[in-house]
Design goal:
- There is one protein chain.
- By secondary structure, the chain is an alpha+beta fold.
- It is 33% helix and 18% strand.
- It contains 9 helices and 8 strands.
- Strands 2, 3, 4, 6, 7 and 8 form a 6-stranded mixed sheet that branches. It has a two-stranded antiparallel sheet with strand order 1-5.
- Helix 2 crosses helix 6.
- The chain is globular and about 65 Å long.
């Protein structure tokens, strides 16, 4: 009986921890948004408050099952990400086993800790890597020191006003539903509802990541790379048998030590 009660208490603590209502309550109680905030652009302190509330209330076990891909339209920029696992990256989220929904031409499939996730990237407006560089985030020395230590941490720049959500009552069905439906964030499976407008994607901020694979969406490149099974995972072989962007993709896959896939997760080439 004691063991059953212990398991029940642990289960209840888990439910309370993974909690949209707790999330909005935390934000409603925060003083980081200011008395005159009614939704819109937010500062650094409010953005960090959102990430803290997310970390406290999210179901990180569920989030860890999602596949995350950082997309770019310029493949040559992808090699710059090598060794940058401490920098938070924006990525799309996909349920395991589903096809990747390409946001741009090339993707880096990554695995790390999701520090914030939204069903709609337009509800975050987290910006680009350069937005967190010298000038906006401190001097060149300060940013360089941060790059070497904790890396660049992204954050949301917009939010709705959650001040009235503090009135919602725990255990009340309407309150629970209002909290769950009133946030754009993916805290758990119940709040997973990514937009599909053709103009926007979901977005996760992924920290302490490692590369899992490279995703190719161009049909011609997919056809070309899938026919290169005779090319071994060595720089010499790649230099001899591949040219142009194909060579760049294979060399980058070799540098990361990861395979190349298409959007349907079909293996195209593996340097290993």
């Amino acid at each position: 009986m004691d063991e059953e009660m212990k398991l029940l208490r642990e289960y209840i603590r888990t439910l309370l921890k993974e909690d949209p209502l707790g999330f909005v309550h935390d934000l409603a109680a925060s003083d980081k948004f200011g008395d005159q905030f009614f939704g819109g652009n937010i500062g650094k302190d409010a953005a960090r408050e959102i990430k803290r509330a997310f970390n406290k209330n999210a179901d990180h076990k569920f989030l860890s099952t999602l596949d995350t891909v950082h997309w770019t339209g310029d493949f040559y920029a992808m090699e710059e990400l090598k060794g940058k696992g401490k920098d938070e990256l924006s990525a799309t989220m996909t349920l395991p086993g589903e096809n990747f929904d390409a946001a741009l031409d090339y993707g880096l499939w990554i695995k790390g800790r999701i520090t914030l996730a939204s069903n709609d990237q337009d509800k975050l407006y987290s910006g680009f890597h350069g937005d967190y560089g010298p000038g906006k985030e401190g001097t060149e020395e300060e940013v360089a020191h941060r790059d070497k230590s904790s890396g660049r941490n992204k954050r949301p720049t917009v939010s709705k006003d959650y001040s009235r959500y503090g009135q919602l009552k725990r255990g009340n069905e309407f309150s629970e539903k209002m909290a769950r439906d009133g946030i754009p964030y993916v805290l758990d499976q119940s709040t997973w509802n990514p937009v599909d407008t053709g103009r926007s994607n979901n977005e996760a901020l992924v920290d302490n990541w490692r590369p899992v694979g490279i995703i190719i969406t161009n049909p011609d490149l997919i056809y070309t790379i899938s026919g290169l099974e005779y090319v071994e995972g060595t720089k010499e072989d790649i230099e001899e048998f591949a040219v142009g962007i194909t060579k760049k993709i294979l060399l980058t896959a070799l540098a990361f030590g990861v395979p190349v896939y298409d959007e349907e997760r079909e293996l195209l080439w593996d340097p290993r």
